[in-house]
Amino acid sequence: MGAPQLILASASPRRRELIARLGIEPVRTGGADIDETPHKAELPRLYAQRMAREKAEAAADSNAFVLAGDTVVACGRRILPKADDEATARQCLTLLSGRRHRVLSAIALRAPDGTLRERLSETQVRFKRLSPEEREAYLATGEWHGKAGGYAIQGYAEGLIAWIEGSHSGVVGLPLFETRALLKAAGFSLG
């Protein structure tokens, strides 16, 4: 039997693209079927970590490493939703306009022996103050659909970001520096 393989416990095409930047082609990808409802008064950091952990455990496989992640956009102690409709995206963008917010990207790696390792990337992001026209033009792109906080930094929204401090790939959905370190610590061969 060869070296253990990697399962990416995510249906996100962005996470698959990002993991490929580390030279890794997962043997399988797919979202974990878990309840993603935040607990009452759960802080954004703890929520992101719990989600990554639960996704990794839900996809457990004794023949492969399982990598799972969760990205949370937080404004203060508030967890912003994934925007499934334009009204939600508009609310998120209105809240984030001209303000600093945090993007917490948690990752969990479950080894074939059941050992679980975790890392968290925290990135500060600030949107420029958006005019109503800029906000509506961004909404018209549709790229906000399904995105935490109602925006995708890897698309048109990048031109609306005044500054970022931290991991760009973490905001996209998988912090590559932390992921690489986690894989190396677990003994996963990165070639």
UniProtKB/TrEMBL annotation:
Enzyme class: hydrolase
Main location: cytoplasm
Protein name: dTTP/UTP pyrophosphatase
Site (Important for substrate specificity): 14, 71, 154
Source organism per UniProt: Caenibius tardaugens NBRC 16725
UniProt-listed Enzyme Commission number(s): 3.6.1.9
This protein's UniProt keywords: Cytoplasm, Hydrolase, Nucleotide metabolism
Family matches, as Gene3D superfamilies: 3.90.950.10
GO terms for cellular component: cytoplasm
Keyword Hydrolase in annotation: yes
Active-site annotation: 70 (proton acceptor)
GO biological process: nucleotide metabolic process
Function description: Nucleoside triphosphate pyrophosphatase that hydrolyzes dTTP and UTP. May have a dual role in cell division arrest and in preventing the incorporation of modified nucleotides into cellular nucleic acids.
Cofactors: a divalent metal cation
Compartment(s): Cytoplasm
Reaction equations catalysed: UTP + H2O = UMP + diphosphate + H(+); dTTP + H2O = dTMP + diphosphate + H(+)
GO molecular function: dTTP diphosphatase activity; UTP diphosphatase activity
Similarity section: Belongs to the Maf family. YhdE subfamily.
Keyword Cytoplasm annotated: yes
